[in-house]
Write a structure and sequence with these properties.
204 residues, mainly alpha
């Protein structure tokens, strides 16, 4: 026989206090960035994904190899650059061209870093959620252990009370047997009515 107590009023054990925002915690800004990416975030994700595709890597690899072979096997005229237009090889053109390519390279690096930060934020939010769920599971397990112990103690008490009642019932039966024997020796009959029922009224 198992008797359980109503534990609806038992409060759940409080979780550990929230940690201050840090490298391993989820801030509201991280959650917002993961849940509601802006147009810039989506563009950064697209650039980062495109830069990491095998097709893009293969394209630039083939382009660099081809460009190198052209100048390596093109002879003196090709390597000297005399076949190129003068404006293309002038310092006045190379400086802004190098500046543009450098800025574009940095901008692509920043976009990739933005996408990497969003991925890190998503991972941090996921780990923080898992950590919170683990704490809730631990609290629930602790409550279950407490309830099982209370149930076991209550069952043991009920068993003790049942045993005591059985002993008392045996004692009552023994006392009734002795009383019946004594009343029989005295010429009385004590077994005609239950012990809790008054004897029938006698008429004079």
């Amino acid at each position: 026989m198992t008797v359980t107590e109503d534990s609806t009023e038992d409060p759940v054990q409080p979780l550990a206090p929230a940690r201050a925002p840090g490298p391993r915690t989820t801030t509201q800004a991280m959650k917002d960035a993961v849940k509601s990416p802006t147009a810039f975030d989506r563009f950064a994700d697209w650039v980062s994904e495109a830069m990491g595709r095998p097709l893009n890597i293969a394209f630039w690899f083939v382009l660099v190899i081809t460009w190198t072979l052209i100048f390596a096997l093109g002879g003196h005229k090709m390597s000297s650059g005399s076949w190129l237009p003068t404006w293309f090889t002038s310092q006045g053109y190379n400086f802004p061209l190098n500046l543009i390519t450098t800025v574009a390279e940095l901008f692509i690096g920043f976009l990739v870093a933005t996408a990497a930060n969003r991925a890190q934020n998503a991972l941090t939010a996921l780990l923080d959620k898992i950590d919170t769920q683990e704490k809730q599971i631990e609290a629930t397990e602790a409550n279950i252990v407490t309830l099982i112990k209370e149930n076991t103690d209550l069952t043991s008490e009920i068993h003790t009370i049942t045993t005591q009642v059985a002993k008392n019932a045996a004692l009552i039966v023994d006392v009734r047997r002795h009383v019946t024997a004594l009343t029989a020796q005295a010429g009385l009959d004590a077994g005609k009515f239950p012990p809790d029922t008054p004897p029938p009224a006698t008429t004079s």
